[in-house]
């Protein structure tokens, strides 16, 4: 029913009657989507005729005045129609043409500040203009009433509607605070309820950036809604706005201003929820430090509220503190935690019983490294190198990966026979000695290997033996003695064949093909077979200098005849360019997030510190240290790489974490709590326990169920870090730390890729399909890896939704430990490295037991307190 009176068309400003449906001048509909302003017929004067500009006036060739909305301390406000954008707007004019510069500066500041805040619960400000000597700003037109008039009309709001309004006010105020903007004049008359029931904060006329408020302007605002510190002129902070918020909320729930009553809110409203009263009273604390930290913390403290969902619905990014404090995810119950721990023990037992796919189980290492080092030294003495070296180094390494590909062409029984004989040898024992100091130059690990440092100094010798002590390779740099025998002594070639335990009767001389990497005055080559019944064609190359062997190598037809060529320089340059571009992009994105105040600085700092300390521990445990001044150089080099690694993860966290918090904040809850220092949080412990069980359960599912039932064959893999772990107990501990950090970082990359797909595709199931496809492609052609990755993906998606990202990262770290240490070191119980193979499972059981204890302790505390 139309309100009696007269009005104007919103498009052409022609005067119309209340019962008209179309404007006779422009045919614009006068109801529905297009609103028409009417004034009561009994009014002595129409609001349209009041004010400086009568209805129908066109300003700046763009805005057609529809009527005066009101007057305030900062000027007149008109409703107008934007002829260019074809929408209603509100125009706010300064009260006079010749305004003081201070007032004009505040007017410009209002526009500049208000445009920084874009939120559904904040009235949008469009632009600033100048017409007929007067300044004005254009803003969003709200067709409703302010909260003050609503409360005068109906008294207090019902509790459910009051909660809804309070949460929306908190969301809008939090958006302003996130941009560093303080309102400073928050009161019911500056909060509008539009025609759709949406709450909007208006009138940023006193708003200012927190860092730009002059001392003389601290007391600006409405005294009835000022905080004590603002009235006294001490300071104005976000918590000053929270005091004003508390007064507004008090008025919403009770219908009375706090100054009008000295009683508590619950005495004014008998059925008021105690949690609401606590929130109001905390906001009204005299001491700012005792008030809530932010407006979102106020929303979080309200009963039945989900501040994360509210922030996301309002288009805002939840803060790290809000994510960590969220109660949306819960840890395991006592029963679930105990079942998970027992399941882990069952999985480990099944792996111990059924898992026979570790490489060292098929090609065992029967002789410890110390004994192999003695054999290498004795062998060199028999070959003529009788001088005592100043420094030595040794360890296990991958000698010929092509031998494993060759062995896996055969049936399991024949394959195992080839691998157990170590002919051809897949892995070997390397030994190096030097009459001087062997200086580690491998970056960043500072560990001596067969290839590092280069074997280029006189007196350097390096060699490879197989696991049984047979010579596989030798390279010696003759010492510069200054005496050359003429003619040179004849070398004893048979001594080399005997050192390799190759029967000279089974080999025939051949023309040498390999050019030795060192100077030589005699060369020799043989071809033959390993033993009776073996079909492999073996080729041996040797060289000597002054009667002593300087080169020896065992090769054969199992090796790839045409190895792939090295990558072109252009490809290498492109890869390096992409890497540098990504680093620069991350740095710029991190800088942008920092300047916008979106980043979790504390979490990034703690993550960087964890990787810095972790790498330094790895370096201390695995590097080849020297008792000389060079150790200082190695330390500086290690510190520099640790700092780079820490800076990289710091930048990654600053650049990417805000997007995770924006699009998938629930997944970050346990990670945020861990980075906040809440190590003994039950949700954190539940994530750790679940991740360990997922990784070990996925592996046990294959070896104990899928492989026996379907007869699946697992492709063996050459041990990687496990060979480094065989070097010493300290190396084993260092590799364990490295595996944990690398596994978590690898799964974090997978998660970020999936999140990117989810953001681009805007569909969660597409991201899930991407995870499945990635698992299949990464595992092929090994069916074990396919099934393992698939079970990890399915379980990981469930964990991301049920528990959080920390469980997924823990599963990645556990999988890396399982593959590299437990799987790589699997052996018979009597082997010399059997106890080292137990370290990985022991660490996993210890971590799971600690998580179980945290969960049980956390759930026992409330019962104890009740008793």
Short description:
With 867 residues, this protein is α+β, with helices and mostly antiparallel strands.
Explained architecture:
- The structure is a single chain.
- Helices cover 47% and strands 14% of the residues.
- It is built from 28 helices and 22 strands.
- It is elongated, with a radius of gyration of 39 Å.
- The protein is an alpha+beta fold and 867 residues long.
- The two termini are 65 Å apart.
- It folds into five domains: 5-140, Phosphorylase Kinase, domain 1 (2-Layer Sandwich); 145-316, Transferase(Phosphotransferase), domain 1 (Orthogonal Bundle); 333-354 and 672-859, no CATH class; 363-556, no CATH class; 570-663, no CATH class.
- The strands form five sheets. It has an eight-stranded antiparallel β-sheet with strand order 15-16-17-18-22-21-20-19, covered by helices on one side.
- Residues 1-6, 32-49, 208-216 and 862-867 have low confidence and may be disordered.
Q: What's the Cα radius of gyration?
A: 39 Å
Low-confidence stretches: 1-6, 32-49, 208-216, 862-867
Number of domains: 5
> Helix amount, in percent?
40-55%
Q: Beta fraction of the residues?
A: 5-15%
Largest sheet: 8 strands, antiparallel
What gross morphology would you assign?
A: elongated
Quaternary: single chain
- Taking the alpha carbons of the first and last residues, their distance comes to 65 Å
**Structural classification:** alpha+beta
Number of helices: 28
Number of strands: 22
Mean pLDDT: 82
Strand order of the largest sheet: 15-16-17-18-22-21-20-19
């Amino acid at each position: 029913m139309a309100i009696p009176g007269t009005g104007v068309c919103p498009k052409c400003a022609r005067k119309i009657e209340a019962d008209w449906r179309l404007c006779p001048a422009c045919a614009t509909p006068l109801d529905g989507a297009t609103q028409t302003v009417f004034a009561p017929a009994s009014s002595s004067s129409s609001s349209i005729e009041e004010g400086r500009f009568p209805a129908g006036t066109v300003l700046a060739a763009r805005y057609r005045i529809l009527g005066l909305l009101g007057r305030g301390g900062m000027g007149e406000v008109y409703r107008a129609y934007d002829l260019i954008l074809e929408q209603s707007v509100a125009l706010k004019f300064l009260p006079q043409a010749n305004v003081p510069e201070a007032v004009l500066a505040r007017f410009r500041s209002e526009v500049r500040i208000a445009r920084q805040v874009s939120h559904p619960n904040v009235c949008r400000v469009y632009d600033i203009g100048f017409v007929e000597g007067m300044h004005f700003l254009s803003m969003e037109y709200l067709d409703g009433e302010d909260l003050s008039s609503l409360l005068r009309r109906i008294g207090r709001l019902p509790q459910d509607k009051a909660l809804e309004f309070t949460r929306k006010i908190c969301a809008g105020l939090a958006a302003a605070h996130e941009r560093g903007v303080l309102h400073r004049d928050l009161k019911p008359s500056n909060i509008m309820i539009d025609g759709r029931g949406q709450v909007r904060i208006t009138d940023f006329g006193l708003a200012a950036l927190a860092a730009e408020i002059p001392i003389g302007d601290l007391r600006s605002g409405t005294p009835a809604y000022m905080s004590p510190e603002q009235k006294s002129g001490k300071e104005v902070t976000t918590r000053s706005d929270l005091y004003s918020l508390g007064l507004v909320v008090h008025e919403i729930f009770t219908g009375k201003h706090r100054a009008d009553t000295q009683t508590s809110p619950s005495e004014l409203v008998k059925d008021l929820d105690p949690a609401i009263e606590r929130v109001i009273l905390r906001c009204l604390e005299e001491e700012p430090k005792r008030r809530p930290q932010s407006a979102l913390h106020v929303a979080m403290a309200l009963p039945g509220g989900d501040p994360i969902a509210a922030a996301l619905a309002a288009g805002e990014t939840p803060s790290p503190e809000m994510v960590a404090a969220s109660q949306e995810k819960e840890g395991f119950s006592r029963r679930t935690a105990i079942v998970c721990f027992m399941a882990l023990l069952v999985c480990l037992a099944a792996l111990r019983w059924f898992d026979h796919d570790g490489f060292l189980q098929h090609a065992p290492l029967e002789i410890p490294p110390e004994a192999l080092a003695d054999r290498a030294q004795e062998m060199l003495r028999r070959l003529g190198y009788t001088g005592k070296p100043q420094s030595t180094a040794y360890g296990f390494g991958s000698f010929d990966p092509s031998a494993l590909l060759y062995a896996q062409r055969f049936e399991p029984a024949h394959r195992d026979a080839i691998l157990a004989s170590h002919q051809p040898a897949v892995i070997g024992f390397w030994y190096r000695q030097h009459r001087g100091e062997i200086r580690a130059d491998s970056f960043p690990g500072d560990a001596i290997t067969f290839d590092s440092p280069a074997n280029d100094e006189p007196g350097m010798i390096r060699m490879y033996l197989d696991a049984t002590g047979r010579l596989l390779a030798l390279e010696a740099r003759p010492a510069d003695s200054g005496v050359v025998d003429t003619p040179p002594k004849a070398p004893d070639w048979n001594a080399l064949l005997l050192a390799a335990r190759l029967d000279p009767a089974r080999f025939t001389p051949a023309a040498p093909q390999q050019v030795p990497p060192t100077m030589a005055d005699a060369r020799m080559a043989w071809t033959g077979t390993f033993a009776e019944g073996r079909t492999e064609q073996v080729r041996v190359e040797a060289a000597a200098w002054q009667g002593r062997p300087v080169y020896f190598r065992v090769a054969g037809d199992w090796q790839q005849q045409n190895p792939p060529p090295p990558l072109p320089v252009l490809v290498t340059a492109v890869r390096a360019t992409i890497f540098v571009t990504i680093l620069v992009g991350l740095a710029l994105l991190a800088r942008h997030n920092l300047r916008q105040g979106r980043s979790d600085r504390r979490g990034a700092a703690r993550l960087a510190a964890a990787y810095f300390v972790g790498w330094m521990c790895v370096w201390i445990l695995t590097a080849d240290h020297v008792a000389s001044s060079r150790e200082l150089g190695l330390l500086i080099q290690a510190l520099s790489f640790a700092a780079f690694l820490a800076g990289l993860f710091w930048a990654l966290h600053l650049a990417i974490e805000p997007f995770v918090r924006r699009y998938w904040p629930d997944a970050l809850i346990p990670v945020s709590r861990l980075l906040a220092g809440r190590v003994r949080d039950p949700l954190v412990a539940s994530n750790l326990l679940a991740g360990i069980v997922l990784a070990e359960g996925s592996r046990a599912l294959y070896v104990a169920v899928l492989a026996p039932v379907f007869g699946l064959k697992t492709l063996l893999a050459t041990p990687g870090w496990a060979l480094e772990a065989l070097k010493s107990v300290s190396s084993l501990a260092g590799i364990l730390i490295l595996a944990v950090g690398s596994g978590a970082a690898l799964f974090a990359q997978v998660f970020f890729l999936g999140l990117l797909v989810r953001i681009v595709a805007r569909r969660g199931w597409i991201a899930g399909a991407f995870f499945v496809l990635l698992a299949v492609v990464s595992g092929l052609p090994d069916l074990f890896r396919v099934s393992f990755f698939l079970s990890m993906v399915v379980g990981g998606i469930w964990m991301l939704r049920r528990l959080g990202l920390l469980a997924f990262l823990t599963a990645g770290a556990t999988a890396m430990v399982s593959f590299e240490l437990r799987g790589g070191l699997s052996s018979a119980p009597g082997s010399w490295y059997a106890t080292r193979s137990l370290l990985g499972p022991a660490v996993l059981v210890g971590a799971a037991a600690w998580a179980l204890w945290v969960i049980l302790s956390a759930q026992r505390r409330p019962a104890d307190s009740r008793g």
